[in-house]
From TrEMBL:
<comment type="subunit">
    <text>Homodimer.</text>
</comment>
<comment type="similarity">
    <text>Belongs to the class-I pyridoxal-phosphate-dependent aminotransferase family.</text>
</comment>
<feature type="domain" description="Aminotransferase class I/classII large">
    <location>
        <begin position="55"/>
        <end position="420"/>
    </location>
</feature>
<keyword id="KW-0032">Aminotransferase</keyword>
<dbReference type="Pfam" id="PF00155">
    <property type="entry name" value="Aminotran_1_2"/>
</dbReference>
<dbReference type="GO" id="GO:0006520">
    <property type="term" value="P:amino acid metabolic process"/>
</dbReference>
<keyword id="KW-0808">Transferase</keyword>
<dbReference type="GO" id="GO:0004069">
    <property type="term" value="F:L-aspartate:2-oxoglutarate aminotransferase activity"/>
</dbReference>
<dbReference type="InterPro" id="IPR015424">
    <property type="entry name" value="PyrdxlP-dep_Trfase"/>
</dbReference>
<dbReference type="InterPro" id="IPR000796">
    <property type="entry name" value="Asp_trans"/>
</dbReference>
<protein>
    <recommendedName>
        <fullName>Aspartate aminotransferase</fullName>
        <ecNumber>2.6.1.1</ecNumber>
    </recommendedName>
</protein>
<dbReference type="GO" id="GO:0005739">
    <property type="term" value="C:mitochondrion"/>
</dbReference>
<dbReference type="InterPro" id="IPR004839">
    <property type="entry name" value="Aminotransferase_I/II_large"/>
</dbReference>
<dbReference type="InterPro" id="IPR015422">
    <property type="entry name" value="PyrdxlP-dep_Trfase_small"/>
</dbReference>
<dbReference type="InterPro" id="IPR004838">
    <property type="entry name" value="NHTrfase_class1_PyrdxlP-BS"/>
</dbReference>
<keyword id="KW-0663">Pyridoxal phosphate</keyword>
<dbReference type="GO" id="GO:0030170">
    <property type="term" value="F:pyridoxal phosphate binding"/>
</dbReference>
Length: 427
């Protein structure tokens, strides 16, 4: 019998000796494939990396940097890694991921003493960070509510649109941001909630809205929750920034807690990318609050079945880091301190950016820089102004005018403010 190597050598010879048909038919498979559009967020990082200018600044992607502009690994994470090094095998996790990590993660969203956790009414699985959690939910929604649509705020994180599009769930939008006040368009939001067909699905940012940095007040959340009850809408919370809004993960879960108090059966995506700095570890959680334990068991089994052909089971390392930190009171306290430290540095940079712009004599109002919360400042700059920042000053950010405040440092804030002033002063 001919060996596999001999066969493949023969094929290679035939292809290289001018059997045009083989070359043509192989290359014709993909001739209709056009290059994909650049991702509006990750494409900015690619462009930044390709720039060789010494003063370049990246305030595009939402990834925390220290005051020297360097990526940060939290001390609690380093300590957890020291503790787990060599202690575990590399076996598969179950399809639903690490039970210990999921249990700890639910406490952050639903509360340490949540009755729903005690009653085992939450169907929850480890997910590939917040994106993976949203994607799993979108697939689940399509499978079990095939005629439903998803209402998404305008604006939102650009990938939300991709996620529900790929799951083939039709998208509707609801008002959120008021461009003139650079705050919440609460009246229009409420109108959209009231006018949506009863029993609609809404995707809500639990805190530190991306990209605007504008959140409803506690009172407004109560009104939203009340109206959701009246309309029997389903609230799916994407909580990618727990801890980044106020510096306190418990306070940042307020919107979710209000909905729980009001008796909603919610869904929730959680991520440790930002608040534990575990970006590349892809660790998060999807949870769905059910009517009872029996329903939760069924829902969880279906979520696992959706995960199985997509990626089989989630990765181990990040989950182990998270569960090690959250199950140890000392490490958890260290984490809480470090989250607050990150949030505070960003708040400090907001003040500095605004001060710099005002000291330069900018004719525009910049209060929103300090009013907005979380990782992002929705500056109000136009795509053309952003293009000028990039082309003339080597400052990289998304074309919707979003500044990742996590990338602003004592060293670059003056340069950033000057450049913003130059491109906006005559508008
Ligand atoms: C962002 O909005 O910059 C982050 O959530 C990163 C991402 O994946 O888009």
């Amino acid at each position: 019998m001919a060996s596999r190597t001999a066969i493949s050598c023969g094929i290679a010879r035939r292809l290289s000796s001018g059997y045009g048909f083989a070359t043509r038919s192989m290359s014709s498979w993909w001739t209709d494939v056009e290059p994909a559009a650049k991702d509006p967020i990750l494409g900015v990082t690619e462009a930044f990396l390709a720039d060789t200018h010494p003063d370049k600044v990246n305030v595009g992607v939402g990834a925390y940097r220290d005051d020297d502009g360097k990526p940060v690994v939290l001390e609690c994470v380093r300590e957890a890694e020291r503790r787990i090094a060599g202690s575990e095998n590399m076996e598969y996790l179950p399809m639903g991921g690490s039970v210990k990590m999921v249990d700890e993660t639910l406490k952050l969203a639903y509360g340490e003493n949540s009755e729903f956790i005690k009653e085992k009414r939450i169907a929850a699985v480890q997910a590939l960070s917040g994106t993976g959690a949203c994607r799993l939910f979108a697939e689940f929604q399509k499978r079990f509510q095939p005629d439903s649509q998803i209402y998404i705020p305008i604006p939102t994180w650009s990938n939300h649109h991709n996620i529900w599009r790929d799951a083939q769930v039709p998208q509707r939008t609801f008002h959120y941001y008021h461009a003139e006040t650079r705050g919440l368009d609460f009246a229009s939001l409420m109108d959209d909630v009231k006018n949506a067909p009863n029993g609609s699905f809404f995707m809500l940012h639990a805190c530190a809205h991306n990209p605007t940095g504008v959140d409803p007040t506690e009172e407004q959340w109560r009104e939203i929750s009340y109206q959701f009850k009246v309309k029997n809408h389903f609230a799916f919370f994407d909580m990618a920034y727990q801890g980044f809004a106020s510096g306190d993960p418990e306070r940042d879960a307020k919107a979710i807690r209000i909905f729980l108090e009001d008796g909603h059966l919610i869904g929730c995506a959680q991520s440790y990318a930002k608040n534990m700095g575990l970006y590349g570890q892809r660790v998060g959680c999807l949870s769905i609050l059910c009517e009872d334990e029996l329903q939760a068991v069924a829902v969880k089994s279906q979520l696992q079945q959706i995960a199985r052909p997509m990626y089989s089971n989630p990765p181990v390392h990040g989950a182990l880091v998270v569960s090690t930190i959250l199950s140890d009171p000392t490490l958890k306290n260290l984490w809480l301190k470090e989250v607050k430290g990150m949030a505070d540095r960003i708040i400090g940079m907001r003040t500095k950016l605004r001060e710099n712009l005002e000291n330069l004599g900018s004719p525009l109002p910049w209060e929103h820089v300090t009013k907005q919360i979380g990782m992002f400042c929705y500056s109000g700059m136009t795509p053309e102004q952003v293009d000028r920042l990039t082309n003339e000053y080597h400052i990289y950010m998304t074309r919707n005018g979003r500044i990742s405040m996590a990338g602003v440092t004592t060293g670059n804030v003056g340069y950033l403010a000057k450049a913003i002033h130059e491109v906006t002063k005559s508008s």
